[in-house]
Amino acid sequence: MSLKKQIINYLQLNKDAGIDLFFLDEKIIYTKKNKPKINPINENTTTIVKIENETDNKITTETNMQTPQQTKSIINKIHSTDNKTITIDANLYQLDNIADLTTFNKHIANCQNCVLGTTRTNLVFGEGNPNADIMIIGEAPGADEDEQGLPFVGKAGKLLTDILKAIKLSRSDVYIANICKCRPPANRKPLADEIDRCEKYLHKQIEIIKPQFILALGLTAADALFKQTFKMGEIRGKFLEYRGIKTLITYHPAALLRNPNWKRPVWEDMQLLRNSYDNYLISR
Known about the structure:
With 284 residues, the protein is an alpha/beta fold. It has 10 helices and 13 strands. It folds into 2 domains: 1-39, no CATH class; 122-283, 3-Layer(aba) Sandwich (Uracil-DNA Glycosylase, subunit E).
């Protein structure tokens, strides 16, 4: 069942029960066809947070259908709130004294600073060479990754391993991580607030590993890194710079499973990465 249909069914149940629903202080009006009609949401919205207990440095974000959120649609709002109150542990963002990945992994292992932390099976921290010259960044774990707690272990992960082998690299040569550490329900794209809560961890990983190259897999990862909306045809095949690091963007392996025609441009991108990496090795 589509998400739109699920939302309509949810609202219909409330209507049948005689429950009035309000969105941004406006009552939801039902049409004669008994389908809900919702006025457009104001995109310039903010998240309301409050200090719950200053002594333990925790912040509580209260969310409900009447509170403005950082979202662009009613669909995103339902995803991000899910009628839950998320308690943000600000101590998890105190990262200055963390100098290695093992300590860092233990530090955030129980993070629940966004709704994804309440639905995951395992936090997927990352895997690979902690001193890697090349860091690979995807968007978020999938079902297999969530189950095993490791990045890129499903069909797309196997294809990534083969892609690396094609340019004479192994998974142990690189470090693999994601924008978000927890699986979004039903493998949907991470929401803006989820990325915002989690990308601090990615920034710290980059700081510790100090890669010379970043390979971003897919537009979701690229958009999250650069805070822009890209088109793959406009950005692949060339290096961009992210935090002073040469960054190459190419198709996500999962996209190749759906569209094998994209394997050729990915192969071209990987050759570009390999050649640039070889030149780096010679010059250092």
